[in-house]
Amino acid sequence: MGYLRQYKIMMNEVALSSGFLFPSVKISFFLRTARLTSLEPKVTSALCVKCSKKQLKLNSRADENRKVVKKSGKKEHHLWQKRDSAGSGQKALNLVRIVSELPNEKEAVYGALDKWTAWETEFPLIAAAKALKILQQRRQWTRVIQVAKWMLSKGQGATLGTYDTLLLAFDKDDRVDEAKSLWNMIIHVHTRSMSKRLFSRMISLYDHHNMQDEIIEVFADMEELGVRPDEDTVWRVARAFKKLGQEEKRELVLERYLCKWKYIHFNGERVRVKRDGWNEE
């Protein structure tokens, strides 16, 4: 009987391992494997989506890092093309202080200005222009003329703005002959680029010194170049014609260039009204 019991136990173990005694166990095992195989593509696709999102984030971060690296790169420095205005205000004040303490002698002023630029790699044009503006505000007309002439002698600052400042300084310092020489040079060199401002400046200069013939001459150049005068210039030209006894030309200038309407302030508002004749000067 012991042998039979051992035989049955051994056969049961074999059957159990083969799944004959418990068929549901074997079936459930196959179903489980089938479900796993059916879910496998979904799981792999979800994993792929997650991986692709992670990869996109990593790529975007890498691109941002590359952009930051590009922005933080070194800037090229060209010594002779640099136009840096850093510190130009302090340089301008230093120039004004230097020229203000000098005697009124051309050699002394030019020598000091040459020393001022001795250690500069390029001409400090911005600082010199600011110094001219400061001298003009302080009404130091002689110093304005000296600094402007020195700049022009160095081949720097030959602009219409510098010419306008120099003509104003000649006017205030009663140096009409020098203003006339400068004007002839300007009109000869910059014929096609003359501005209304320069014409008005020169006519104003001649008007201050009662030079009616010169006013008419400049106005003729103005008409020839097709530059329309502003209202103040029109009145100065009309006044010059009146002083010369040419009333018809005065009326013609006023009718041609002066607007028939004018603006006045009435009850705090700007109102346009029609002019009543040409006797408003």
UniProtKB/TrEMBL annotation:
PPR repeat extents: 195-229
InterPro entries: EMB1417-like, PPR_rpt, TPR-like_helical_dom_sf
The UniProt record lists the keyword Repeat: yes
Domain of life of the source: Eukaryota
The keyword Repeat appears for this protein: yes
Keywords per UniProt: Repeat
Listed name of the protein: Pentacotripeptide-repeat region of PRORP domain-containing protein
Organism from which the protein derives: Populus trichocarpa
Lineage, top ranks: Eukaryota, Viridiplantae, Streptophyta, Embryophyta, Tracheophyta
